[in-house]
Design a protein that fits this description.
Elements lengths: L10 E7 L10 E4 L26 E9 L2 E10 L4 E4 L3 E4 L2 E3 L1 E6 L12 H13 L4 E4 L6 H10 L2 E5 L9 H15 L5 E5 L23 E3 L4 E2 L2 E2 L6 H10 L3 E7 L12 H8 L5 E6 L7 E3 L5 E3 L18 H9 L3 E3 L10 E6 L10 E8 L11 E8 L9 E5 L11 E7 L5 E8 L7 H8 L4
Parallel strand pairs: 8-9, 8-16, 9-10, 10-11, 11-12, 14-15, 15-16
Antiparallel strand pairs: 1-2, 1-3, 3-4, 5-6, 6-7, 13-14, 17-18, 19-20, 20-23, 21-22, 21-24, 24-25
Length: 456
């Protein structure tokens, strides 16, 4: 708590509540003393823990009093959780190992530039969750506080970053900015790292400043550098990933990779890279560059989208958050329910699964499947026809465990055109819908046959 302009006779008290205002535990207080801040502490038995999968939140009511009564009150949401960077091991939240699946987000909207609304913040966070992301990096400046509130409530791990790009602040200015950053954002449970600059813009004299204002003493990282037990190298090529996975000792999570422009699309080759990254014994995940195409509407040029040529067109979604092809690729590859490849030629109803959640048992999820036929050429209908639909009992698989789904196939199942399997999370939202072609019918065989004939 950072009070100011007080006499020294006041008392600061705190009361933890549910979001509905129910009191949790006894209130606790501390008398104001000399110094720029004071820390209030208490203990609570078995609170509901916060994580990206289960973002349980509480609120604290902080009251400033003197002998005459209440002077001021402020209410703030927070969450109970632990974060550990275990060197030569991995990243842990509440004692469970996690893998960061995220993107780098610039604050941008075509009509308003860097001035964003609550609706845009919520839209962005929901799109990330829809892609099965669990994390976001604030590149390269702290976001609006409202976006951090959204991340707290929806469940996204955050890398909060000192403003800058590739040049460091001098120490005098940097110390002031670090204090402003940490004091403002310290109580957000979503924040798990402090980024001290970006890509060479690190003033190492600031590294120990963060803990002065952070009771949690979160790990400070240098994005793009091996530092504090982390390896966050930017844009490693595939061979570099293979080498790092084989020999790297640090917890490895690249804070920029799979550049949406220069790597040909954020989803391009992601499956190959991600599969290799997960082999790293100290894998921590990665952050794709970038979340959105940054383009501004030029009212002086007939409302064209201006992204400075191709410099800003490097997103997974478009300027107005249009879903591009990589969106769906990422959604499948980063699904916490992993479905192994299967062949319809030998398929007998068994679908291998792996639980890639950190806290969720797959028995908390829901599965549905169906067999469909597609309209034939010349048909007036354009929609597929469901031949058979069924719900599946979700298997009891803890995080990291593998098992199977068993489909009770009808006798004529192989006469259908396709099989669909859809998984839904504990929040009843779709995780992903997988599809497999069953009948490999030739398209327009007369035309194809005609084209294959040699000219006379």
């Amino acid at each position: 708590v950072y009070p100011s302009k007080l006499r020294g006779t006041e008392v600061v008290s705190a009361e933890v509540q549910t979001l509905k205002g129910k009191k949790i535990g006894a209130a606790f207080s501390k008398k104001v003393h000399q110094g720029d801040h004071l820390t209030l502490t208490s203990s609570f038995a078995k609170p509901a823990l916060w994580s990206a999968e289960f973002p349980n939140l509480y609120q604290v009511l902080v009251t400033l009093k003197d002998g005459k009564g209440t002077l001021h009150q402020v209410k703030q949401k927070f969450g109970f959780r632990t974060v550990e960077l275990r060197k030569n091991d991995g990243l842990y939240v509440n004692g469970a190992k996690i893998i960061l699946k995220g993107s780098n987000r610039h604050s941008f909207w075509p009509e308003t530039g860097r001035t964003l609304s609550h609706g845009v913040h919520t839209m962005d966070a929901n799109l990330m969750k829809e892609m099965n992301m669990n994390a976001v990096r604030m590149s390269h400046y702290p976001p609006d506080q409202d976006f951090l509130d959204v991340c707290d409530s929806i469940g996204l791990y955050v890398l909060d970053e000192l403003t800058g790009w590739q040049a460091k602040y001098d120490t005098e200015v940097g110390k002031k900015l670090v204090k402003e950053l940490v004091v403002r954002d310290v109580n957000h449970p979503s924040i798990i790292f402090w980024d001290n600059g970006n890509e060479g813009g690190w003033n190492t004299e600031l590294d120990n400043e963060y803990k002065l204002y952070d009771p949690q003493n979160r790990t400070v990282i240098h994005p793009w550098e091996k530092f504090n037990g982390t390896d966050t190298k930017h844009y490693p090529d595939y061979n570099g990933i293979v080498k790092t996975s084989a020999t790297g000792q640090e917890v490895f999570f690249t804070t920029e990779f799979m550049h949406g422009l220069y790597d040909g699309g954020a989803g391009a080759a992601l499956d190959d890279f991600w599969s290799e990254m997960l082999k790293h014994p100290h894998a921590g995940g990665g952050f794709i560059w970038a979340f959105i195409d940054e383009a501004v509407i030029r009212t002086d040029k007939n409302n064209i989208y201006d992204s400075d040529g191709n410099h800003g067109a490097d997103g997974i979604v478009g300027p107005h958050r249009e879903k591009e092809a990589s969106f769906f690729t990422i959604k499948e590859i980063w699904s916490p329910v992993y479905v192994a490849p299967i062949s319809m030629e030998t398929f007998a109803g068994t679908i291998p699964l792996e639980n890639r959640y950190s806290f969720t048992n797959l028995n908390q999820c829901t599965f549905k499947w169906k067999l469909v036929n597609f309209p034939k050429a010349g048909d007036k209908a354009t929609q597929s026809v469901d031949k058979f639909t069924a719900n599946l009992k979700a298997p009891d698989l803890k995080p990291g465990e593998k098992g199977n789904l068993q489909l009770a196939l009808p006798a004529d199942w192989n006469k259908s055109d396709a099989l669909y399997l859809t998984a839904y999370g504990p929040d009843k939202k779709e995780i992903f819908c997988w599809s497999w072609q069953i009948n490999e019918k030739l398209l327009l065989p007369p035309v194809i046959n005609g084209l294959s004939k040699s000219p006379k």
